[in-house]
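Feature request, filed as a ticket because there's no other form

It would be nice if the structure record came with a short human-readable summary line next to the tokens. Right now we just get the raw output. Example of a typical job, pasted below so the devs can see what we mean:
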Amino acid sequence: MPVLRRAVALSIATGLLAVSTRRAVTSSGTIDVVTYHNDVARTGQNLNETILTPASVNVATFGRTGLFAVDGKVDAQPLYLSAVAIPAKGTHDVLYVATEHDSVYALDAVSGTVLWRTSLLGAGETTSDTRSCGQVTPEIGITATPVIDRSRGTNGIVYAVAMSKNSSGTYFQRLHALDAALGTEMFGGPLTIQATFPGTGAGSANGTVTFDAKQYEERSGLLLLNGRIITVWTSHCDIDPYTGWIMAFDAATLAQTSVLNVTPNGSRGGLWMAGAGPAADAQGNVYVLDGNGTFDTTLTAGFPNRGNFGNAFLKIATAGALSVADYFATFDTVSASNADTDLGSGGALVLPDLIDGSGATRHLAVGAGKDSHIYVVDRDAMGKWNASSNLNYQDITGALGGSVFSMPAYFNNTLYYGASGRQLKAFRIASARIAASASSVTAASFAFPGTTPGISASGTANAIVWAVENKSPAVLHAYDAGDLSHELYNSTQAPASRDAFGSGNKFITPTIVDGHVFVGTPNGVASFGLLAPSAPTGLRITGE
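Raw output as currently delivered:
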């Protein structure tokens, strides 16, 4: 990746409709957003944003600049590459949008013009039905946020997992690698995903658990880590049989390199995480929150004796074969699973190195789920399981006020959480400890599932917290990161329907980059940015 492109790796048919009532003010285009929540730690922060500031983001100068229509629902977070050379179409800042209709779009990030669109359906196939589950509707195609490797191939590669079915009723899960400039399949793809693992758990036969494509959904964002694509899998609702699958694939060949099942001799234990991608640390370990499922309370050397880790905060080693290197489970994990009050409804975040009160460096990660606790774990010793008490690093109770079906964000020693039905709250971090109460909260509350915020800032200056309210119509909010009671903007403040962008999407995460804020909708992507003072009004229709 060129040095001048400060990648924040941090990492929508034909006949696209772009509704634009004013011209967007654009930047020089030097930032990439290539993965869910901006980086592999899943902090949600873009520290290279110089256009959007607390001074410039207000209803007079900021608003909706476009609506980019696509062929299906956008559940995945939109991704972004700056200055992509598209053959015969010139150089563009490109927005990559995946849909539940099994399409990936490359759009000009300002105009919404379709640069290419690729369907990931096989010949004669359709998207999956809802599998009798109302969580992803009206069809299931690409749910998980893709990941982009700009350094691979001639133009970079977009990796995505797509679900489909044929006329015989056979379901498929496939891993695709698309040329970022052309949309063509690369590396002999797509790869049909299959897997087996030793075990006697749900759906097993003769001591082997087999991955059944129709029973699973790739909801959590893809993770690119050390040349491997990591995928984690969940079920449709809690429709049995299912178990907890984690798989790794070679980014250069798509070959499957390792498979792990975290409930191989039990049942359930899917990885939901509100669409959040697995988080990773600098040492190549992956962190996930597992959903309700079997947990073995008989331990061998501190680990479940039959390898069942349902409802646990897991550390997955990725050097060589995938394996559980450490974990934390609450003392009441079994009863919590039975009551469906599991950890796995929220996403995990890896915090930066922090210095505690004695001067020691702490390596921490944080997660929360349906029981409304904020669980902080020491990544070097997560706490494992104890029958009478929680042995993790820090357990914060009563602060969130509601269950978590979302992902937190981190910025400048502050953690931002938006629990279901509650306000977005900021928690200060000092001496490697998260405050037990919020330092500031928003006036607005966020209905189910709460909100997954994103952060824009220039270094530590001009920080804004962005959050989407999942209702009809949906609302985009912008807050002063230092004081959430100070709302800079929301999309209902504009006259008439100037900034309206349709109904909400349950788990959508805003993408903030190069002066733009992109928000997935049930039928496209809404684009927000600074408004040109003398822009004409009107309707512009563009297409391929």
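Something like this underneath would help us a lot:
The chain has a mean pLDDT of 93.
The chain is about 0% helix and 40% strand.
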